[in-house]
Structures are given as C-alpha cells and as structure tokens.
C-alpha cells in the first residue's frame, strides 16, 4: 500500500514538473512574440519617418473576401451621357432609361434652366459655316472617289431638286389629337426622372439637367452645375431607377454590391466623389470600378482588341490586351452621335426640310431628329440617287401629322462626319483628349506626384554616383558629356507619332514627367537651353494635336500605332471592336474596314493576315456590350480581391482605388 502511494506521488510530482516547464516555455514564447511585435512597431515608425510606402493592410477590419458572392446581389451601373444602363449581374438585359432629371423650382418666378443635348460650345461662330462647307467638300470628294460594288462611280444627287420638291410639301393630318401627353405634375413632385423628365411641359416650373456631358460630370456655372448638385442628380436618378425599375428597396442596398463602369480617360476626382456617393450615401456594401474598354472585351469574349466606343457625345479609342488597357493608346474624341444628329439637321434644312417648326432648343424635336438619323442615315455607298421618305410628328396638345421628304446624299454625308469632324462646325474647342497626369489628392499621399518626386531623387543620386565614378577615371569628361546627352535623349523619348511628320501625339502625363525630369536636370546646371527648347517644342506639338479634330479612322490608326510591339499591333488590327450606339448605321462595318485597310501603314499590310472590324459580337447590340462585360466581371473569381468595402473606404478613402483598381490609378 505504501509502495503504491509512493509511486503515485512520484507521478504527480513528475506531471507538475513537466507542466511547470511547459508553462515556462509558453511564457517565454509569448514574451518573445511581444518583443517581436514591439520591434515591428518601431520599424514601422522608422519607415514612416523615412517616407517609405507600405501596402495598405487594414488589420482592424476583418477580411470579407472569403464571402460567397451571389451575382443576383451585384448591380452593374454603366452611366452614359444620354442613357443609363443599370441592372443585376444576372439580368439578360439591363434597364435603359434616359439619363436626365427634372427638378421643381423651390421658389415661384424662378427662371427656367434646361441643358440641351444637341447644343455645345464652339458653335455659331463666324468660322462655323465655312468650316462646315470645307468638311462637306471633303466628304463629297471621298464619296466620288470610291467606286460602288458594280465598279461605277457614284453620281451625286441634286440638292436643288430635293429642295424644290420639299418646299412644296404640306403635312397631312392623321389625327386631331395624339396619345402623347405631357407628364402629369398636378401632385407637384420634387423631381422627375427619365421619360417623365423629357415630357415635362415647358410651362411647368422645372429645370432639366443631364448630369453627364461628353463622358464627364456636367460641371458648369449655371443653375445645378456645381459638383454637389450634379452628384445629387446622379444619386436621385440611380436610386429612383433601382427602386422603381429593379424593385430593390433603398434600405436593402447594404446587402448589394455595385460595379461601376468608367471611361478610360476620366477625371479621377469625379470618380472618387461618385464612389464616395455609392458607398456612403446610397449605402452599397462594396464597389468595383473598372474601365469601359476592358469590360467591352469581357462582354464580347475577346482577349485582345482595339476598342472603339462611339457614344452620343464622345468617342473613345483604346487598345486592350489580356484585360489591360494600354495607357499610351487611349484617345477621347469630343464628338459622337449627337454631333451627327445636329449635322443631319443642318443638311435637312439645306434640302428644304418640310417640318419647318423644328428647333434644336426643343427637346421633343431633338428626339424626332435622333429618330430620323437612326432610321434614314447609312454608310452604304451603293445607295444613291433621290429617295422619298415619310415620317410622323406626334407631340402633346398638337395634331398628329404625316410628312413626306425627298433626300439624296444627306443620309450618307451626315454619318461621314465622324471621319471628317470639321463638318460638325465646332470652332475653338479641344476635340482630341489624351491621358493626362492627375493633379493630386490630399487624401492620397502616395499618388503620381509622390512617386515622381521619389523617382527623381533616386535618379539624381544614382546619376551623381555615376558622374563621380566617371570623373575619377581617365577621360571621364567624355563619359560625362555622353551621359548628359543620353539624358536629353531619354527626355525626348515620347510616344510614337509625336513628331512633326506624323499624325500622332504625346500624353500629358509623360510630358509632365519629362518636364519634371528636365527641371531636375537643369537644376544640376546641365544643358539648360537644349532642354527648355525641347520641352517647349513638345508642348506646342501637344497643344496642336489636341486642338486638331481627328477622324475616327485616323484615331484608330494612331491608337494602334502607340502600342509597344509589332505583335501587339498585329493583334489590334485583326480585332477592331466597335461598341456604343453612335455607329449603328447600315454599312458601317464595311465602310470602316475599307478606310482602315486603305490608310494603315504599308508595312503592316504584309504582316497582318486579316483586318477585321467587329460590330456585333455574338449578335449583341453594340450599346449593350460594355454593360454585359461588367456583368461577366461580377462572376469571375479573380475579381474578389478588387472589391472596395464600405468600412475600408471610410478608413482609407481614395487610397483604396490605388490599391484595388484593376487599372493604374
């Protein structure tokens, strides 16, 4: 019995000793972990003092990327200048509404204000008519120079004959009244959206606002033109459409995510404000921001393409390869389908348009002209001669009328303005926009300016070290001169096509980068005059390039020419994807293909096996492709790390766009 008790006591003592040793080791490990954490904190403090950028890693926020995301809880928003495409990622087609809002006056007697889609700055100048005539002459020459499919040159139709016939036309009354009615405002709604806003009676006390113009927020000095007012209009339009068209209560948006499609060349400050509105005002749980051109390739199922987005008020061209938009290839042309509509109206007037009360200031007349352009205009040169057409006018509080009109080359000349933009008659405006460097954001300390400054300092220190080594060697003076000349050569390395003998340009971002590097080199006292002369020359080239109105075909050739390698250029020539609703004319695909083949560099005609223009991939409407690509993006596993969550945005703001955006912010 005593022996058993002794053995048990020994076992207990051994267990206690082992437990004590284990506790001591655990305490040591814990103490070592605390010391390591303290050392890490000290290293972080030192790095922050030295200005070292660390990746954003919000440890206090639980990682939400492991959640299973349902596509039915993802809303894809593609805002355009004229229309808004919005819908769930699982929808076959998005909801399409006019991107317009009517706001009731807060005070009686307040003057009315209305944005007009077909008017723009640069019109009604003394040079406008002359510029239009010159553009029309170039179009007529191009029409005559190209033979029809039967080998015969096209005979121009007589405008005088068409005018003589149209001036005799009187409308026929179809009905004394029409079913079209003004929007009922008897209950005095504070705002109206979409079609209801378009059909607001001009005598009612409402202002009409289109919050996006030419792909950018419609900031102007008139009523409702401030950034705050434009963002409020966007919030109201989107919230109303989500609630009424998608049947989603606004209080449930905290369970939904949003994919926002933005132009390739955009104002970053505006994008920041829109994302802030989506997350903090409307209350989405997470947001992805992606480029329209990349989403267009997703929607069409292409890995690489030169994406040509012809919208209502702007046209953008960009080369996309494997989901990446090439920065140097981006172009934004400040014209689109509305400019074609306005030009068609000018040609109709010249041909004696029988509807003589038509005015560009009347929004319903603008709708009629848009319809006539879409149904009558074409790019098929085999259609020639004078032809008779009919159209109806159905306006509120007016009889339904039937008109006959005889037209000839006007139907072809108007859409050809996209290739000869001087026909649009816009004077003194920037018609070609390039990718530019962001002006900086106080909430984003590690922006382009920070990276540029650190790069310049690093280049300075490395250059000084090289110079010291060169001076220490015999004949070092020659090496130093060669180094200085190399610096000037690097400064002048701008994108292809920026020389005086080319039709290309240089991006503002790279020009500013070159300017900053030039200032840095001039501070060191090297080659002041050559650098300043070089930079001033390139600034003049850039200004001249942006003021020049590039035709659509020349813009495509310039964009492809800015690609880095011949292999990439070959891919782009073999896949030119046209999206948007501005080029949906009969014969547009063959017409654009003919102009690209005739104007592409001769060296590439031998290298490119097949030049292809894709207008309707998978038989989809061109205006739908980018939105469909956003819906495809919501279903990809690789996009899970691109979501910007509400709590992350509240903590880090615009820095999350730099870390999470799929493109270089």
TrEMBL record:
Q: What's its job?
A: Plays an important role in the functional organization of mitotic chromosomes. Exhibits low basal ATPase activity, and unable to polymerize.
Q: Which family does it belong to?
A: Belongs to the actin family. ARP8 subfamily.
**Pfam families attached to this UniProt entry:** Actin
Q: Where is this region: Disordered?
A: 30-55, 463-484
- What is the originating organism of this protein? Xyrichtys novacula
Q: Which GO terms describe its cellular component?
A: chromosome; nucleus
Example GO BP: cell division
Q: Which residues form the signal peptide?
A: none
Q: What is this protein called?
A: Actin-related protein 8
Domain of life according to the entry? Eukaryota
């Amino acid at each position: 019995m005593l022996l058993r008790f002794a053995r048990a006591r020994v076992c207990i003592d051994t267990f206690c000793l082992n437990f004590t040793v284990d506790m001591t080791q655990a305490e040591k490990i814990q103490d070592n972990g605390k010391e390591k954490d303290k050392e890490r904190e000290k290293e972080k403090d030192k790095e922050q003092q030295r200005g070292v950028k660390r990746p954003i890693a919000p440890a206090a926020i639980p990682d939400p990327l492991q959640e299973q995301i349902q596509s039915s809880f993802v809303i894809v928003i593609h805002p355009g200048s004229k229309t808004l495409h919005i819908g769930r990622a699982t929808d076959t087609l998005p909801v399409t509404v006019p991107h317009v809002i009517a706001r009731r006056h807060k005070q009686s007697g307040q003057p009315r204000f209305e944005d007009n889609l077909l008017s723009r700055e640069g019109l009604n100048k003394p040079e406008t008519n002359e510029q239009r005539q010159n553009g029309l002459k170039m179009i007529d020459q191009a029409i005559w120079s190209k033979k029809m499919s039967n080998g015969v040159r096209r005979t121009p139709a007589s405008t005088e004959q068409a005018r003589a016939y149209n001036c005799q036309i009187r409308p026929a009354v179809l009905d004394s009244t029409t079913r079209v009615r003004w929007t009922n405002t008897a209950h005095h709604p504070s705002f109206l959206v979409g079609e209801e806003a378009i059909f607001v009676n001009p005598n009612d006390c409402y202002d009409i606002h289109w919050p996006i113009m030419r792909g950018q927020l419609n900031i102007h000095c008139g009523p409702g033109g401030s950034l705050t007012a434009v963002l409020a209009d966007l919030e109201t339009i989107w919230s109303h459409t989500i609630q009424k068209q998608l049947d989603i209560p606004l209080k449930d948006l905290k369970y939904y995510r949003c994919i926002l499609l933005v132009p390739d060349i955009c104002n970053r400050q505006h994008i920041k404000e829109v994302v802030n509105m989506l997350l903090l005002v409307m209350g989405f749980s997470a947001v992805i921001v992606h480029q329209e051109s990349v989403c267009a390739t997703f929607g069409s199922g292409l890995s690489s393409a030169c994406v040509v987005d012809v919208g209502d008020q702007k046209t953008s061209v960009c080369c996309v390869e494997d989901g990446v938009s090439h920065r140097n290839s981006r172009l934004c042309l400040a014209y689109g389908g509305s400019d074609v509509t306005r030009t068609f109206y000018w040609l109709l007037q010249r041909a004696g348009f029988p509807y003589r009360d038509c005015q560009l200031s009347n929004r319903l007349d603008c709708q009629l002209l848009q319809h006539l352009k879409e149904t009558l205009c074409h790019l098929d040169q085999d259609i020639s001669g004078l032809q008779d057409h009919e159209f109806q006018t159905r306006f509120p509080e007016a009889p339904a009328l039937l008109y006959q009109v005889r037209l000839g080359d006007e139907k072809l000349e108007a859409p050809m303005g996209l290739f000869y933009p001087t026909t649009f008659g816009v004077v003194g405006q920037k018609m070609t926009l390039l990718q530019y460097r962001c002006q900086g954001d106080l909430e984003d300390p590690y922006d382009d300016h920070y990276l540029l400054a650190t790069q310049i300092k690093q280049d300075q220190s490395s250059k000084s070290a090289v110079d010291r080594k060169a001076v220490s060697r015999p004949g070092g003076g020659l090496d130093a001169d060669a180094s200085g000349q190399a610096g000037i050569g690097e400064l002048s390395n701008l994108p292809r096509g920026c020389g005086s003998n080319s039709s290309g340009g240089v991006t503002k971002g790279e020009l500013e980068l070159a300017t900053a590097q030039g200032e840095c080199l001039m501070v060191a006292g090297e080659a002041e005059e050559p650098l300043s002369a070089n930079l001033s020359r390139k600034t003049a080239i850039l200004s001249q390039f942006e003021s020049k109105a590039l035709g659509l075909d020349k813009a495509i050739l310039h964009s492809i020419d800015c690609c880095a390698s011949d292999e990439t250029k070959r891919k782009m020539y073999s896949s030119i994807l046209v999206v948007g609703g501005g080029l949906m004319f009969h014969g547009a695909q063959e017409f654009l293909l003919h102009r690209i083949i005739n104007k592409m560099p001769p060296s590439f005609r031998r290298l490119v096996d097949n030049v292809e223009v894709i207008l309707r991939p998978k038989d989809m409407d061109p205006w739908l492709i980018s939105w469909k690509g956003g819906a495809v993006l919501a279903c990809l596993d690789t996009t899970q790390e691109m979501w910007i969550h509400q709590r992350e945005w509240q903590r880090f703001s615009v820095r999350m766009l730099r870390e999470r955006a799929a493109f270089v912010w």
